[in-house]
Write the structure tokens for this entry.
Amino acid sequence: MQHSLLVVDDSEMNRDMLRRRLERKGYRVITAENGEQALELVAREAIDLVLLDVMMPGLSGIDVLTRLRERWPESDLPVIMATARDSTEDVVEA
């Protein structure tokens, strides 16, 4: 069974790099360039894991995570938060 991953990042270069690397490992990869698009994709696609950028224009990764958790518990939809931020506060918030 091929697992489906959703990569959410406003950087096209980051999305493309992650997509190519994960596809080489055998995953089905769907990408979204913003939070709204990510929420739409999760609602209509069977997603096994979300790789979510924290810093995005519009809906931030934290906003997207909050909305996802309103509908899907961690056990049903794991999310890995990705960020260049390194402060303790940012890590704890994610």
